[in-house]
Amino acid sequence: MTNPHRTHKRVTIADVAREAGLSPTTVSHSLNGIGQVDPRTRQHVKDVAARLKYRPSVRAQRLRTGKSHAIALLSSMPAAVSAGESQLGFFTELAMGLARKALLSGYVLVLAPPMDQCDPLALMDIDGAILLEPAPDDPIARELEERGVPCVTVGGEPGPDNIDLQHAAAADLLLRHLLDSGARRPGLILGASGRASQRSFHERYLAMAGARGFAPAVGLAAEEEGEAGGQRAAARLLAEHPGLDALCVPIDTFASGALRAIGEAGLRVPGDLLLATRHDGVRARTCQPPLTAVDLHLDAVSHAAVQRLLRMLGHETQDAPLGLPAPALVARRSTGA
């Protein structure tokens, strides 16, 4: 009878090296994707390790290298807009793709939602970080720099360590769709944080207003107010500009709040007013009516962000393609689709 509590001798790097006829250093470099190792040698080592059922000791790796093999997803966006009440917002959806890619690359992803009560970086042992849509002079970005933690931003300022969410292209898609769907005077509701996405939407909106000849109408909401802030901003904008026949609301939490304000004003979507948001997430899909949105290709964004961070951490990995897929419009009933 097999003893269920029987322990088996753990296969070590030395065992793999002996079987492969190579030095432990070459085996270690081959398995960890570091150093200059011939691709055929690297594959030979992986084949031998698989045959011996070698499993690396994560604890030993950390002690030996001084690395945690952990990366974090961080954001200064309040949870009210980055996740919302369902906790299934933009931040969480991006995290799923990042976690998959990180694990395939030998890293675990630490999810650190925005918190006012503590400093998450003081509690984490991480090798690098991915920072989602940093604000101007973002406190988390500043602390990462002070701590010397390598960081890739997603949707931040243009630069070699930023993954571009193509804000201007997303703005043009939504605004043109609203106008092509019959809107004559669309309004815009933005977050007041000054993040790159909100600035891009504002710039493209003003340019579109000038090109199409409609008077701009822009409302602002504080991110920490979440859906209620979007609702109040929409109510004010509709009261101040009764001729509006569409709203572009890039932050989906604000968009669902705007939908409430529209209903309270006795208007119907899409019958009286068209409504569109940026992120094609759970909120956009489950609103009634479902909201027209933009597919930002978060899987590709996740892949690119992890690849870029691994490169910064010294791993031999090919960078993701420079050209991410272009944002794609997902038309729904909120704009008459």
From TrEMBL:
It comes from the Bacteria. InterPro entries: HTH_LacI (IPR000843), LacI/GalR-like_sensor (IPR046335), Lambda_DNA-bd_dom_sf (IPR010982), Peripla_BP_I (IPR028082). GO terms for molecular function: DNA-binding transcription factor activity; transcription cis-regulatory region binding. Residues 11-65 form the HTH lacI-type domain. Keywords: DNA-binding, Repressor, Transcription, Transcription regulation. It holds the Pfam family Peripla_BP_3. Gene3D superfamilies: 3.40.50.2300, lambda repressor-like DNA-binding domains. This is DNA-binding LacI/PurR family transcriptional regulator. It comes from Castellaniella defragrans.
